[in-house]
């Protein structure tokens, strides 16, 4: 049985002075994260120290939203896995569609980052998903298989430590959600792709759905056999809606 995992992606929201109040609300509403579902908050880099402090004594995991693949060096403006670890970060989102779309993230750089995150002992949340155009052109399967194969290449022995988020780009921040049947179809395709790469660990990989997940649709989505939780954007910025999604995963 895979334990469900619900992670909030705060994106570029919440000041360090605002983060503790949201975390306090999430702690209260999820029994400090001790609720049968793994709960994670992925905060902006600048919020990490305040969030780490506010999460002390809870079971809620702390995540970042990106990192560089090099350990250290002349990479102005970048943050390494070791820097995240040193601040108590446990999870890191990699290859989010907004990074692919606006910041030239590629399958190759996601793969480099994934290897660095695993080497540092971070739990990566690797995002994959097709655009509306790709879906309409009948290329969804090709895109998903390519992203999973290239992003996770060479990491087969660590599959059980990797979380994947299927996030159809057309559903992110748009209010349009994939139906649970549409999402399950892609989650099954992701698991079948993983099984070709490492049949022994494919069943252990947790695959989250992301894209306008909210309290109203979360239970239906997470009732599907290959949907092991959610990566939540907008609804993660309010403690009540985020916690309602967490509880829907029980
Ligand atoms: C996301 O960006 O990871 C996401 C799922 O956003 P939203 O829930 O707002 O669609």
List the helices and strands and how they pair.
Elements lengths: L4 E5 L9 H11 L8 E5 L5 H8 L5 E4 L16 H6 L4 E4 L2 H6 L4 H14 L2 E6 L3 H5 L3 H12 L11 E4 L13 H18 L8 E5 L4 H8 L6 E4 L6 H10 L2
Parallel strand pairs: 1-2, 1-8, 2-3, 3-4, 4-5, 5-6, 6-7, 7-8
Helix pairs in contact: 1-2, 1-10, 7-8, 9-10
The structure holds phosphoenolpyruvate (PEP).
Q: Tell me roughly what share of residues is in helical segments.
A: 25-40%
Structural class computed from helices and strand pairing: alpha/beta
Mean pLDDT: 97
Major sheet size, sense and barrel closure:
8 strands, parallel, barrel
Weakly predicted, low-confidence segments = none
Distance between the termini: 13 Å
Shape: globular
Radius of gyration: 17 Å
Q: Report the bound ligands by name, code or SMILES.
A: phosphoenolpyruvate
Order of helices and strands: EHEHEHEHHEHHEHEHEH
Strand content: 5-15%
Q: What is the number of E strands? A: 8
Count of alpha and pi helical runs: 10
Physical arrangement of strands within the biggest beta sheet:
1-2-3-4-5-6-7-8
